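Subject: Protein record for review, amino acid sequence with backbone structure tokens
Concerning: The relation between a protein's sequence and the shape of its backbone.
How to read it: Take the token row as a discrete description of the fold.
Enclosed: The protein record, placed directly beneath this head.
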Amino acid sequence: MWPRKPADDAIIKRKPVRSGMTVLVIPDAASGGSRRFSLRWGWLVAAAAIGLCVGLGAFGAPVLLAGSVGTNFALLADKVNLEAQKAGLEQQLAAQKADLERQLNLEQGKVAALSDQSRKLGLRLQNLEAQVQAVADRAGVKVTRASTKPRGGNPDLLETDPFAMLSALDAQLSVVNNDFGNALEPLGGQLRAEAAIPSGFPTSGRITSKFGSRFGPSGRFERHTGWDIATGIGTPVNVTAPGIVETAGWTNVGYGFHVVVNHGYGYQTLYGHLSKILVKVGQRVNVNDLIALTGSTGYSSGPHLHYEVRVNGTPISPGPYLFRARPSGGGNLEDILTVRR
């Protein structure tokens, strides 16, 4: 037999149990009755979550901030170090740049000076070419015409590159030297012949008698073979052309102490009535060398120099030779020709 269902009134109805917790607040005796609070678990979980967040915000932020600040300080230190290195490198680069600029300016100055020197050498070489051309014309020798620019390269390049200019000048100098050598040999004989011609006065003084017939000291007409130059005793006598002393001493012909110099090419000069002779026979003399001192020895009426010019042994008038200009530069012709070679 089945059990009987109880009546509805007999069933005890209970209130549904809510999940949560109850908080009972009991005050002291003076405050009155107690109070009861019911807290659901959802509220508690939410409150706990909020508290956790607040706690993390209160205690975790400083920790995170401290870590961030430390990292920032490290980065800042690295930045300062890198900026210091950068500044040092910039200073080194600036110093190297300044040094390079100084060296460049110095080299540019050297190149400019070299360019100026090469231009001056070019002008001197052109002048030398012109002189060689003149010498060659006198010798009747054909040589390369004097150029207006150095030979051996592009003129535009030569104007801007001093090294190319010097190289071209060196090449041109070889050409000029060869031209001069070709002109020198045939010109040598002509120059020696010209140098042998007596030129200029042998001493200072006043002309008292010229070449030709005259009344001599004896009061008779006689043939005077030279020019007389009156001057004080002891005045220097200089040879008027290079040559070799042929006679130096006393003669009874009338010249007294005298010197004869053979200049070659048929030319001789005689210097008479000397007080002192300063050269010896066979001695080589050059133009303007001191050979004696004036006097009044031999057939003489007073202190003077008797000067003769002889061509192939025959006395001729010294007049044209006395007023003939001496070759410029002087010096021994043979030495000059030897050096030029």
Observations:
- The chain has a mean pLDDT of 76.
